[in-house]
Amino acid sequence: MGVSENYKSIIQEIGSIRPERPPVLIAVSKYQPQAKVRDGLAGGVLHFGENRVQEGSEKFKDLGIAGKDFILHHIGPVQSSHIRKYPGIFSYVHGLGSKKILEELLSRMEREKWELKYFLQVNLTGEDSKSGFSKEDAISLLKNKSDLFGEYCKLEGLMTMGPSSGDPEITRTVFRELANIRKEFLPEGKLSMGMSGDYRIAIEEGSDYLRIGTAIFGERE
Ligand SMILES: *Cc1c(COP(=O)(O)O)cnc(C)c1O
């Protein structure tokens, strides 16, 4: 099936699992050629995800106006060198995992007057291969809300990744734990969780943003 057929069938599935408050579907186009992004745009995709900032900027810069024709999400761990490349192209960031980077992000976006929403990544599986704050560090950050919001740069919510094993029970436990942290410490915040292998569980557990790559675009190059 083509990109737009895959996208539409996932949108339909979302509607059948949780019609009352469907999550945003981010089509993760990392390592995919621009031709497939164009197919997605033609098929009604609005939100795209890239994990390499430079590659993402180049792929999207001549496809329209950022924030209007497409909305671009950076989904990988945020590094210092990425931050200056966000203005003009990226609208969301999903992998904020360090306090120092958070301070840099806030001050840069305020200076450049670029509106950006970010998610704090929480590592709830304890796997070393995954970045993000520990649960305890995330909670202590969430207790000082004024440090998390600028005029332009605002905390949108919490992000996590399920276990690499894909074990459905552990996945559900992890997603539920993120939802509980949100409920207690950031009730107005959103949840970014769910990828190609675990998005159905994420929808059931209340996700607001799904990050789906291979199930839409096929295997990466
Ligand atoms: C690559 C990636 C995705 C998409 O993964 P798929 O399994 O292809 O759906 C989602 N989130 C993050 C953080 C990723 O790095």
TrEMBL record:
Keywords of this entry: Pyridoxal phosphate
PTM-bearing positions, type N6-(pyridoxal phosphate)lysine: K30
Names of the cofactor(s): pyridoxal 5'-phosphate
Residues covered by the Alanine racemase N-terminal domain: 38-220
Keyword Lyase assigned: no
Known role: Pyridoxal 5'-phosphate (PLP)-binding protein, which is involved in PLP homeostasis.
Protein's UniProt name: Pyridoxal phosphate homeostasis protein
Pfam family, one: Ala_racemase_N
Family: Belongs to the pyridoxal phosphate-binding protein YggS/PROSC family.
The keyword Heme is assigned to this record: no
SUPFAM superfamilies linked to this entry: PLP-binding barrel
HAMAP family from the UniProt entry: PLP_homeostasis
Single GO molecular function: pyridoxal phosphate binding
